[in-house]
TrEMBL record:
Protein name: Resolvase
PANTHER family with a match to the protein in the record: DNA-INVERTASE FROM LAMBDOID PROPHAGE, SERINE RECOMBINASE PINE-RELATED
Gene Ontology terms, MF aspect: DNA binding; DNA strand exchange activity
Domain Resolvase/invertase-type recombinase catalytic: 2-135
Length: 202
């Protein structure tokens, strides 16, 4: 079981000395250092230390705001630590989840996480109800019959783009747009020329 420390400052003008001193004094076996704004989602050193953590290990930080970029991120991390039996210590906030008070902190964080999920669900349901009151259709959008015909003709026949456009009563540009949206590969120009000759003969 290892003790990992994580220290972070936002800019290179700041220094990590006080955090590193506190982490060493606590007895960290490994210390990961990062210079990165807390508002950015990508933090390589934090991801590295989290990947290293396993059951029974401890993550130590100097202060909560050094770890998390926001409440939602903090709640996610706390749930991860608890579910993987990883101890968590924040020195300046006097949080140590190996103690009864620390476990209480985990419980509170879990309750906040559940409350946040419930609030999100309520906002979604409220939005749906408001949309229905305003007469908006929240079901699956109606199928575009022209688009279906274009795709069917293009994939199952040798008809040219121009001929398909006339049959579906859309422009050539619309035919190409439908094909791009469905990621259908275009046939070669030579292929279309041969098809056009065949259609004229017919």
């Amino acid at each position: 079981m290892s003790i990992y420390g994580y220290a972070r400052v936002s800019t290179r003008e700041q220094n990590l000395d006080s955090q590193i001193y506190a982490l060493k004094a606590y007895g960290c076996d490994y210390i990961y250092k990062e210079v990165q704004s807390g508002s950015l989602s990508k933090r390589n050193e934090l991801e590295k230390v989290i990947d290293k953590l396993k059951k029974g290990d401890t993550l130590v930080i100097f202060k909560l705001d050094r770890l998390s970029r926001g409440t939602h991120h903090l709640l996610e991390l706390m749930e991860f630590f608890k579910s993987n039996d990883i101890k968590f210590v924040s020195i300046q906030n006097n949080i140590d989840t190996s103690t009864s008070m620390g476990m209480f902190f985990f419980t509170i964080m879990g309750a906040f996480a559940e409350m946040e999920r419930e609030l999100i669900r309520e906002r979604v349901y409220a939005g749906i109800a408001a949309a229905r009151i305003n007469g908006k259709n929240l079901g699956r959008p109606p199928i575009n019959k022209n688009k279906e015909l274009v795709i069917e003709l293009y994939t199952s026949t040798d008809l040219s783009i121009s001929y398909i456009a006339r049959k579906a009563e859309v422009s050539r540009a619309t035919v190409y747009r439908y094909l791009r949206k469905e990621a259908i590969p275009l046939k070669t120009k030579l292929f279309h020329k041969k098809c056009l000759v065949f259609q004229k003969k017919g």
